[in-house]
């Protein structure tokens, strides 16, 4: 499925994120300086295990309440005041983790207090109570394209006229459960990620991240001008080997961009095959456009990456310089890959892409004028 | 005389992946394990196999690329284990 600008275009009233570097502005500054938030950390937290690259806001221990509660309470003070969660100002919460780490903590400790945060509903209910949101809260979860779906749904609500403003809120905090899962797949290993880099062994990092955006139909000048979604329906972990699935969203967004000069924020986790397919697809659909990934510094913030990286893109645009592919190195999978920062001045927009398990793909067109 | 490591690996594959009606000698030594149309093994099966092998033989598989190379066939799996565990 792909969507066009007319169906879902929405203005961004306010957008920010939380990473180990701080807010979006601080994160953009750190990325421009080429700093890595990732550090080798025992994969199972206090239970030890192999060291793997994680970018954490604090020790990865499962405590009661979970560590994300206090972090999000403080982060949420940046959200503009509003009757969030009322019928005309709903909240869309997007995450791929929610409080899943608490379920594993319950299995290990048998402390029933963990269960109060262990399901998406329970986690968001806790958040709703903490942040004083009303009952109109939607939950979205679709692996690593989750935030894109939440943003598009917000646009849909605005265009249907059933909402005046929508708060999209996303959070994914790494837990030993999730880190252990990726470690078992061997894509989270002892190496630092080097997105889009030709090398023998692929590697990803994982990172804590949270972000929000307040969307309104006529807000501006920054706008989510178009969204595209596609699912390969090929295999629940593998992509079509010919890379055809990676072409669909960039093609739809290229059509919506209508000749605008854009730069591309790719998904670029650091895995080899998906990185190559993505880099080639982007180069084919947007010849001459620079391609970057920031997951070599921040790690992969999973379901939140689309919104976290949108906030960073907006901060970078305000600063006038776009961070390059931190952690990447030559040779790259495509000549489009930008390793160094570059000026935002020549560009009229940006394309932000995310991909997910199950062959899910998403992309959006961000315009600022 | 059959290689005892090969036989052990074939039996391990059957028990780990709960392959019904398959005998150890049915698992080919030189054919691809993952993506095999005969057994329909996929990347989740590969994950289960890797975890079992690490536990059973005390070896570490460091990356998904290494995992793919090791799991190319029963023979390559045996060679990988022997390279990490010369006595196997």
Care to describe what's here?
The complex is a heterodimer of chains A (about 375) and B (about 90). With about 375 residues, chain A is an alpha/beta fold. Chain A has 2 domains: about 10-215, Peroxisomal Thiolase, Chain A, domain 1, CATH 3.40.47.10; about 225-365, Thiolase/Chalcone synthase (Peroxisomal Thiolase, Chain A, domain 1, 3-Layer(aba) Sandwich). Helices cover about 30% and strands about 20% of the residues of chain A. Chain A is built from 11 helices and 15 strands. In chain A, helix 2 crosses helix 11 and helix 8 runs parallel beside helix 9 (about 270-285). By secondary structure, chain B is mainly alpha-helical. Chain B has a single domain (about 5-10, about 30-85), classed as Non-ribosomal Peptide Synthetase Peptidyl Carrier Protein, Chain A (Orthogonal Bundle). Chain B has helices at about 5-15, 45-55, 65-70, 75-85. In chain B, helix 1 packs across helix 2 and helix 1 (about 5-15) crosses helix 4 (about 75-85). The two termini of chain B are about 15 Å apart. The interface of A and B includes residues 185, 186, 190, 200 and 235 of A.
């Amino acid at each position: 499925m792909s969507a066009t600008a007319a169906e879902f275009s929405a203005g961004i009233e306010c957008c920010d994120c939380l990473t180990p570097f701080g807010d979006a502005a601080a994160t953009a500054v750190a990325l421009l300086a080429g700093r890595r938030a990732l550090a080798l950390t025992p994969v199972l937290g206090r239970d030890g295990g192999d060291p793997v690259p994680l970018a954490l806001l604090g020790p990865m221990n499962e405590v009661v309440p979970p560590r994300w509660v206090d972090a999000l309470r403080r982060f949420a003070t940046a959200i503009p005041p509003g009757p969030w969660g009322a019928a005309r100002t709903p909240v869309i919460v997007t995450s791929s983790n929610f409080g899943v780490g608490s379920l594993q903590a319950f299995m290990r400790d048998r402390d029933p207090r963990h269960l109060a945060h262990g399901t998406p509903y329970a986690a968001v209910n806790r958040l709703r109570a903490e942040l004083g949101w009303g009952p109109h809260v939607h939950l979205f979860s679709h692996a690593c394209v989750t935030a894109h779906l939440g943003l598009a749904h917000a646009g849909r609500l605005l265009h249907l006229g059933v909402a005046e403003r929508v708060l999209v809120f996303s959070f994914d905090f790494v837990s030993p459960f999730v880190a252990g899962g990726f470690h078992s797949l061997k894509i989270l290993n002892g190496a630092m990620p080097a997105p889009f880099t030709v090398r023998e062994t692929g590697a990803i990092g994982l990172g804590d991240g949270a972000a929000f955006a307040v969307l309104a139909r006529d807000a501006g000048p920054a706008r989510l001008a178009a969204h595209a979604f596609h699912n390969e329906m090929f295999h629940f972990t593998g992509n079509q080997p010919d890379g055809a699935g990676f072409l669909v969203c960039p093609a739809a967004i290229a059509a919506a961009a209508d000749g605008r000069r854009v730069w591309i924020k790719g998904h670029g986790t650091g895995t080899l095959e998906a990185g190559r397919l993505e880099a080639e697809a982007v180069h084919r659909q947007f010849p001459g456009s620079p391609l970057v990934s920031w997951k070599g510094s921040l790690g992969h913030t999973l379901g939140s990456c689309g919104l976290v990286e949108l906030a960073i893109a907006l901060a970078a645009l305000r600063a006038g310089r776009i961070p390059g592919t931190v952690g990447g190195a030559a040779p790259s999978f495509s000549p489009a890959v930008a390793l160094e920062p570059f000026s935002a001045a020549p560009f009229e927009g940006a394309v932000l892409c995310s991909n997910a398990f199950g062959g899910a793909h998403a992309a959006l067109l961000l315009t600022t004028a | 005389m059959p290689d005892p490591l090969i036989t052990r690996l074939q039996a391990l594959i059957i028990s780990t992946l709960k392959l019904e009606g398959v005998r150890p000698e049915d698992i080919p030594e030189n054919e691809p394990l993952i993506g095999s149309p005969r057994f329909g093994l996929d990347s989740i099966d590969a994950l289960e196999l890797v975890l079992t092998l690490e536990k059973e033989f005390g070896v570490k598989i460091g990356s998904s690329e290494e995992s793919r190379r090791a799991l190319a066939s029963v023979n390559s799996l045996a060679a990988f284990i022997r390279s990490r565990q010369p006595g196997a």
